[in-house]
Design a protein that fits this description.
Layout: E1 2-6, E2 21-25, H1 26-40, H2 43-52, H3 58-67, H4 72-77, H5 93-96, H6 104-114, H7 138-148, H8 151-162, E3 167-168, E4 175-176, H9 180-184
Length: 192
């Protein structure tokens, strides 16, 4: 069986011109690439020689091609453009304070600086609903109960209810402030 061999290999700038092609047997073709490898030291000729001589499988050749280091020319051609980081230059606050506990004074200053600021990143914030449906630990539930039963919270709730108008059910005449719309009007027993 005869194969076509490039006298000047394509990896060295050879063409498919008939004057650059020659017919050789598999053994002669392997020998030609061995001689080229010994003369020029090109890894492509070494792979062709070892592959044709059945000293290296196709998988080994492919693995060797894939794992070889990339040339500087290839790296330059395929390099991703660097992102614009000018806005971060000179800002050492974020790095310097990372992982440090903030004092109450520091927290107040941060809070004051954020007042009136548009926080578009909070729209669609799902952090609050991440724990929805999960069972709370006893310590967590106890902390919530203590907070809700504190005198300050009870005062705030009472103050918010005091400002609500008194509503009267048109069907039964029941008066109330809290949750009349939510519970009573749609479920008035006399309406049925």
């Amino acid at each position: 069986m005869k194969q076509i061999h490039h006298i000047i290999p394509k990896h060295m700038g050879g063409t498919d011109d008939p004057s650059n092609l020659i017919e050789l047997t598999i053994e002669e073709h392997a020998e030609a690439h061995r001689i080229l490898y010994e003369q020029h030291g090109k890894v492509e000729d070494k792979r062709a020689w070892l592959g044709l001589a059945k000293m290296m499988s196709k998988e080994e050749i492919i693995y060797e091609i894939i794992s070889q280091p990339k040339s500087e020319e290839w790296k330059e051609k395929n390099r991703k453009p660097k992102s614009n980081t000018e806005k971060y230059f000179g800002n050492t606050n974020a790095k310097g304070n990372a992982g440090k506990a903030k004092s109450t004074e520091h927290k107040k200053k941060i809070s004051e600086s954020h007042k009136g600021m548009k926080k578009d990143w909070l729209i669609g914030n799902k952090n609050g609903t991440v724990l929805k449906g999960r069972k709370k630990t006893q310590e967590h539930q106890q902390a919530i109960n203590e907070m809700l039963n504190s005198p300050e919270v009870k005062e705030k709730i009472a103050a918010s209810w005091a400002n609500k108008p008194i509503l009267k059910c048109p069907i039964c005449g029941t008066e109330g402030k809290h949750n009349m719309n939510r519970y009573h009007f749609n479920n008035c027993k006399k309406a049925k």
